Structures
1.
Amino acid sequence: MSTEDKKFTRRQILRWVGGGLLFNATGTVLYDPIGRLIRPVNDRLGEAMLSQRLIPEIELGDHVDLGKLIVNSFDGTPKIDLANFRLQVTGQVNKPLRLSMDDIRRLPYESQITQHVCVEGWAAIVQWGGVKLSDILQIAGVKPTARYVYFTSADGYYESWDLASAQHPQTLLAYQKNDAPLPPENGAPLRLASPIKLGYKLSKWVTAVTVTDQLMTKRGYWEDQGYDWFASI
Amino acid sequence: MRPIAIRIFHWVNLIVLWGLMSSGLQIYNANPVFGGRQGWHMPSVFLLGGWLGGARNWHFTLMWFFGLNLLAYGLYILFSRRWQHYFVQQKDLQALAQSKNPQRRQFAWHRIVYTMAIPLLLLSLISGISMYQPSQLHWVARSFGSWQNLRTIHFLAVPVLISLALVHGTIASNIGNGVLLRSMFAIKSTSNS
């Protein structure tokens, strides 16, 4: 290769890398409009893939162990007075409910070993024990107009789900984790657990379940800052 | 000039893979694959998206372009019958063992390198889809063994594909003094192509 060719190559390489970095800088500025375009598309893909079939549980074995959850919370662990704790079930239901933890423990117990996947990229295998959310929704009697379910937490966290995901047989309101009572930092007394949604959909310290016929402008603590809403896994 | 289908495949791949890697490394920074939050973080100049949510927007936009581009390329090489003679063959390995002709040897190496790219691109796609829908597509996601395996494989695609692209580009730029490389990325036809 002649010197001229080499020079040409070096200049070309610089131009390519410079173009790439410029692409990144521009793309970073445009992250929000891109998200507004693509998130509805990918939400629809998630809806299309969803079924009420069970996700096979994880079988523990030689190299497969229960894992540790990294504790993420936007405002620490709230103090909850267990004696006065009531789960409210309201909205588009025939019979609004106010359930104490004793009421909830009397409902059929469900246990499952599933993988908890965080949006940050880590995952952990967890045994969850609790009550099927679909059982509670059935007792309350969901009206035919119902399409969404909102979850309010004691720390002010809020989430909204599509009704089908909320009624999935593996979507639990859990009060037990890894064969022990659910620790406060993991959401005691009651939290969402499900193998079909990312971790930020799985509200901790749930105090109210509200069935609605439409999505409000506020759709979830993280969704309102730009995470995808359907967030199926 | 190379056929238009092949040129489009290369252009789209170059741009989309750059975007997927830089948004992927931004996602990586939320929880580095090795060492978690205490692990080594990527410098922000190479990242795309600005934060985890922004990077996910880009990553899950570009995945469509990457997948559909790869599919279109697959259909093209299938129906144009390129698969029969464009990828590495027995005679290339023979040439490397016996031939003294540097051009022939370079040609053989080049075929090995770009043939390797195909399974690696597919592996990136499959490991990525597995991390995107590990429950709905549990039958493919769980074939990787564990979540950490899946993350590691998907992450290693970055250094491996960059190295492969550099070798591929270097050999291509040596062939005919750059004619091959220029003809691959030519937008308009020029006199020397």
2.
Amino acid sequence: MIDYFSVFTTGGIVLWQKCYQPVSANILDSLVADIFIEDRRGKAGSDSSMTKDRYTVKWTSSNDFGIIIVAVYQSLLQITFIDELLASVKKLFTTLYADELKAKDSDHLPVCHFGDYFDVRYAELEKSTAGRKPVSAVAAAAAAADDAEEDSEDAGLKSEDLEKDELEPARNGAGSKSPKPLKLSGLAKRGGRRGGRGGSKSASPMSRESSNGDDSSKKSAKKKLRKWDADGTARDVSDDEGPLDFSASKKANGSAPDDDSAVNSQLLEDADVSKWGSKTKSGDFVLKDLSSEINSILASSDEKSDNSSGSVLSSGFGYFRNIIGSKVLSEADMENALNGMKDHLMKKNVAPEVAQHLCDVVRKSLVGTKTGSWTSIEKTVRVAMEDALRKILTPSTSVDLLHEIQRVKSGSSARPYVISVVGVNGVGKSTNLSKIAYWLLQNDMKLLIAACDTFRSGAVEQLRVHARNLKKLTEREGGKIELFEKGYGKDAAVIARDAIAYGNEQGYDVVLIDTAGRRHNDTRLMSSLEKFAKYANPDKIVMVGEALVGTDSVQQARNFNAAFGPNRNLDFFLISKCDTVGDMIGSMVNMTYSTGIPVLFVGTGQMYTDLRTLSVPWAVNMLMS
Amino acid sequence: MSAEDSPLIPLEGTEMAGGGGGYPLPVYLGGLAIACLIAFAVYSFIFSKTHGVAAAGPTFIIAGPSGAGKTALFTLLRYGEKSTTLPSIEQNISTSYRLPSLPDTAKPFVLIDTPGHQKLRQSMFDVLQVSQAARTIHGVLFVVDASAVSKPEKLREAAEYLYDVLRVTEKVRGGSDVLVAANKSELFTAVPAKRLRTLLEAEVQKIRETRTKAIGKVGLDGEKEEEEDGDSATVGGDGWLGLRDGKPFRFEDLESDVMVVGGSVETGKVDDWVGWMEERAVN
């Protein structure tokens, strides 16, 4: 069911992993990078799951230990217990290996023999859900077969496969029936579930039994639990009394009237015995101990977290800790600082949605960590926020336009490099296009400007003026620039295609395409962009967005990014009019956040030379000032 | 010391008891609390100094693009075993790395493995700059996947990162030593170290051409000139790296000593790299 499960440090060292199905390292790497570095979780993605291609990833993390736990499985499958599994693995792992993980800079890698714990817990959860969810018989059979294989592999009991196969039909029968008696009563409900589990399947019956026992005696003290453990085992060996005690009661409660399950239990008993035969005694003990240990750990950490909340002394001490530092941060501690930070960001024109997300990121990254010495919470939050902003604004691939143009120009099939600008009306598409043109002319490129705004009157003339100016400016240095125009009213996509063909014939280096401005929520206008992308197929599609726009920039970026069809996205943003907003450059963050596409250029004035590349430290400074 | 200390304690005690008549008890408790606080504050202040790890002791930094094998190299060097890895999100830091050939009494090294993802590289430059300023840097191990550089975009990525690293190492007089560790030499597609060197030089040459012509960064208009008259003649504020003599770029032109050495973390063939570190360790 699960393809891959792993516990790794934030440093990238895998502490423990289990691979059920081979998942290529590339996919894993890109998943981890997407989730934890690029923060690309999709629009619908919650903060603990992501679906990409055919895989779904769920994760949880523990900041105080610096570990991340991920489970990867096929998106087709609905695994209901994943969250529970992740939570319990986190608890188990942090409890069992606390010393190993906390030990900074020990002389060996943290050794985590977690496999047995995981298998037991996994089997438990799987069983508990097998009875609960309405699975189709086929799916159940498939799953059962799957697990039977896996577990038998684990135990090295290949010979048992046959027996299990025989069991399967019966198990499935019980599995699909068991939900019915669930409606009995509180106690019966528990038992019923057990019954369902027991009936549904069991690759390692011993673990099932022990889990039954543990669960039913969960409310009693730990010691008692252990005592039973030993007792149970002892009886297990001598006769059938021990396991029958529980299985009998549970079957009476659960799917009692079913002859099927009686047979089933009988069969299981047989399987049980045969397992005894082939398995070493010590091995079985381990299994049982683990199960109870797991449950006691899970129970104890619950208590601990209850105790830790609210004590006058600790809160008083916490105040001093805030001044001196070395305080373990909780969500409540950060609430004030984060609210302040959110307001601050919103004043900088960051959309509320984005500001909230940033605060969530910071909260997540800080909760459970210790503040540095002499560092207040506010300072810590601030530093974390700077990091988060830097992470959003830094591009994940570097864009070197000149280099790419050179490559296309000198490649085997030389052709002009095509850049097109899109955007909402009046953001400065033509102006910034000519700024880019000026820069390219300075670098001895031959340019063709295609006037594909065939809608707004004066658009072509405007470009003609730009082209003339640029020609005059760079004539002495041998710049070559020409305007390709076809008048008004024609289809922009066709003109663009013709322009590129013309540019190719005439040996131009770069074709710059200007498009008509369009409102991002006008589907009629936006839909023509898809055709445009198909016909012109630009190397780079630049969206020009103005720094002046506020919250709407999120939606603008999203809609434009989605307008070019499923296989084409924007390549980068050019944020214009940055000189008009001072330090309120939040739109940059909005746009990069909502699409994951970097800001490359920034327009800073009215001159042809007033184009700059984005400096991330500058932007972060502006936003945090 | 203890002989001196012991008479002091009763002395203090008697003084406090004698003066105790004048002040109510809470004042004493408060004073005691403040004293404790100060003691704790001093302690934690001293402790906080160790946070600037890179400045604390002789440092080696592992850098390089994502997927090159940095973290695996880190665990191999530090723990003697190669770990399975996923992309790093944070740095791996060891403050007690001991080179095998050096005696145990020698000061241990700080070994920092930095994330290779483009979005996280800033942390590497921070550490590098801190350690250069504190003169604790002994070398940068720039790990490159030698089997991937046959793809132009991978070569480009590696060269761009290396270029940025060199621009920082060239800032200080004499430069810092950089080892380009051509990892994964066990793979069939791996490029030999010599070839990698020429590939990287050619790529850096291209990068410095285009970087010089690139549009300036916003908000840094004034700083450009400042950078230009830095210590070193081999790095200009405009992104020029190496000598301005019209010849193609060569690593030899730099003040930093750049070596390209092959090896493999997978098969444990890292002796040459460790040897390089040992050479730098004694400096």
